[in-house]
Amino acid sequence: MNLFEYVPLMKEMSSPVAILGVVVLALFLIIIIFKMFGGMRRGGWRQLVRTGMTLLAAVASYIIAVSLSGGIIGSLDTSNLEGLISSIDGFIAGSGDVIRDALSSINSELIEYIFLLPATLILIPILTTAIFLLINLILKIARAVIIKIVGFKKAKNNAQRLGGALLAAIESIIWITMVILPISGVLGLVDEAYCEAIEAAEGEEKAVLESTYDEYLLPLTKNPAICFVNALGAEVMSDGIATVDMGGQRTNMKDEVLGVAHLILVDAGSLDGADFSALTEDNKTAISSIVDTLSQSPFMSKLLVGLLQGSAGAIENGFIPIQMGDEYKSLFSELLAYLGGITEETFEADLNTIKELYFTVSDSGVLTAAQEGGDIMALLQEQREQGDDSISKLITILQSNSRTAPMVKALTEALISSLSSGVELEGGVSVTYDELKGSMNDVLAVKPDSYATEEEYKEALSDTLDSTLRNYGIELESEIVDSIADYIDTEYSEILEFSDEEFNDVLLHYYDAYLNYIEGGELPDVN
User: Fold this and answer.
1) What per-residue confidence (pLDDT) applies to 36?
2) For 353, which of 65, 123, 272, 401 could close a Cys bridge (C-beta 3.0–4.6 Å)?
3) What is the 8-class DSSP label of residue 401?
4) How far apart (Å, rounded) are the C-alpha atoms in residues 294 and 291?
């Protein structure tokens, strides 16, 4: 928007922000004009020294601020935050210990990431301006000495006056650029984020957003003075300051903020009113977009990895108290190990695994049934009869990720614990996954060549299986025992010892057999 379009529009709007926009534009023009008059009096050579020194101060302040930013952010750890924590504790008694306990669960790198965003977008730009003002003050003395030594005189002809005026205009633009630097980057971010929200909105909401934008943001974001200064360097400098090294990767934090803004305003906004226990395809599309944004964002992925690792530590040290039944301890331990082991390299795959697990559970209707107090086992059985086995899908997803595959074993351990009804082995040792798996190898020792007929072999196989299970307090209907024995005979008669994967497969077959039996007494055909 040019000067001749902007001023009439602001006059028509006549809002406080519109008036502020006109004032900013007027000050911009007045500063340049007065500086140009000063340059005309000084002449080209004297003004060249002033402009050169101002440019030197700007470049030096930019370099110094960028070099200091890493040290400032890197110094943010628990010990250096103690003063802030103590101050908070003074306002809210007892809060200091809570904050210290929370911080003890996360590493110092995560603390750096938490402060990285405000530091690069607000603190460092303010620091740059402050350093510029200080250097410029110091160089003012050097400027006077240079002019005195060289003997530059004031303007004596029109050519020197014109040169002085042009150089003074450049000096004034440098000054304005450095002074507005702290707000130019933030203002640009707000502008782009708000435009994202307007683009995503519809109907009355869109009209309200557009009206708010026109009244409060347009007078500044479309201000010819601010746009001119941004085009001549303020925006480039703001981007440079906001670009930091994150694990060897140069990342523009302004782009990261815009990604998060898109996530919140567009993707998350499209989930408004969604039933998260029964996702629609549009809901899944929005969630997938959120997952992609998070996994591809260097800042958000590093921050979330740290938070997930920290949550695992907070649970382990008791800061986040979670009570689990004994039968789920192994599964819970695997889950904590999984969260604590998430890294930047595994984050994308882990996030997609979690997403697929959630989608599968949502599609199964289990979440809705749980909310309504329905019979989840009956629901799963009905779906399985229709060829849609949610449990098998979940297991397939878990097994597809090497980091979640151990949870399948943990699930079967939970099954063993619930089946064994708290029976303990000799010496008070509880039933364990490995103990039962080892004893099940006795079943594999039963071979058909040791029996006269196949019927005798099958009977011996079932009896051995039943005896083994009963030793651990697991009593199953004979039909189920026979079904599992048939499955072992069909799939594993050639082996002498179960691997974890093979044993898990047998236990999951028990799930099939059990569901069939409780539904109608029918057993799966394994032949």
Assistant:
1) 92
2) 401
3) S
4) 5
